[in-house]
Amino acid sequence: MAKTAEKLGLTQPSVTRSLKKLEDELGVQLFHREPNKITLTETGKYAVRQAKKLLDSNLDFSKDVK
Question: Which domains does the chain have, with CATH numbers?
Answer without folding.
Answer: 2-65 (1.10.10.10)
